Amino acid sequence: MSLAIRIHRHGGPEALTLDNVKVGAPGKGQVLLEQRAIGVNFIDVYHRTGLYPVTLPTTIGLEAAARVEAVGEGVVDWQPGDRVAYAGGPLGAYAQRRLMPAERLVRLPDEIDDRAAASMMLQGMTVQYLVRQTYRVSPGETVLWHAAAGGVGLIACQWLRALGATVIGTVGSDEKAALAKAHGCTHTINYRRENFVERVRELTDGLGVPVVYDSVGRDTFEGSLDCLQRRGLLVSFGNASGAVPPFSLGVLAQKGSLFVTRPNLAGYTAARDDLLQCAGELFEQVRAGTVRVATHHAYPLAEAAHAHRDLEARKTTGSIVLLP
């Protein structure tokens, strides 16, 4: 048996329940994991609320650091005691023990502890595909990053600084502005006091930026388009404020032949080779000290609802983990 946080209905944080669930022996191609630290991400909120529908009841969560407890038939790359991590699915991370497909695991370097790994896998690999694949940021470029003091944002600010880019980041408080700047954000915009479109135009001498990374969604979508230079790219990779409503493609032509994409980590790591490349580049950045990951908030597994309330209220900065 294993304690797990499950949802039996979609709803608010109160929909998260602590259940005892049966975990069987690993089947062919599977690994039984003893979870050590579990990442909390906004996509977990989307699954809980039903924005991203899931079959109920289910254990939510997509990211954790763990140790291998047992392996199933045909598994040759892993053995009991191995330290591993994963991000991106299948669902089921909010649990003490769980089964995982062996091919979705990556080996944790000795230098990276469990909490750091659970804090960085989904967020760090997200940054990798966003800045090295979706739009390959070059030295000297200026980018706009919404929610620069969030978990993904803090990793992105560090990585982009190392690439030689100028980062304009939006934040919701002076404290978050200071945190983002400490992690490499060049200019911060407090969206509660400033019009971020006007400030971006000021900071770029009216030109705008070639790329906007937007995980906020509904509240920032139109403004993000207005921050782009001609033929610029809006990378919409989240919906923290709600889903972007339907819009006319003609708007993109009117605003300067713009591009919009809606990528996700699963699409960039579906093949094992792509997963290993993405995680490997993240580990290289951490080993080199380019990216430093700190767990700013840790909650017992049983307090997952508390973690979700704080995340949705934007009371958190950086990464959040649950401890089984």
Automatic annotation (TrEMBL):
The enzyme class is: oxidoreductase
Q: Which UniProt keywords apply?
A: NADP, Oxidoreductase
Family, similarity comment: Belongs to the zinc-containing alcohol dehydrogenase family. Quinone oxidoreductase subfamily.
| Cross-referenced InterPro entries | ADH-like_C (IPR013149), ADH-like_N (IPR013154), ER (IPR020843), GroES-like_sf (IPR011032), NAD(P)-bd_dom_sf (IPR036291), QOR-like (IPR047618), Quin_OxRdtase/zeta-crystal_CS (IPR002364)
Give the Enoyl reductase (ER) domain ranges.
11-322
**GO MF terms held by the record:** mRNA 3'-UTR AU-rich region binding; NADPH binding; quinone reductase (NADPH) activity; zinc ion binding
Give the GO cellular component terms, alphabetically.
cytosol
Q: Which NCBIfam families match?
A: PRK10754.1
Short name of one Pfam family:
ADH_N
Question: Please, which domain of life does this record's source organism belong to?
Answer: Bacteria
Stored Gene3D superfamilies: Medium-chain alcohol dehydrogenases, catalytic domain (3.90.180.10), NAD(P)-binding Rossmann-like Domain (3.40.50.720)
EC no.? 1.6.5.5
Name of protein:
NADPH:quinone reductase
- Known catalytic reactions: 2 a quinone + NADPH + H(+) = 2 a 1,4-benzosemiquinone + NADP(+)
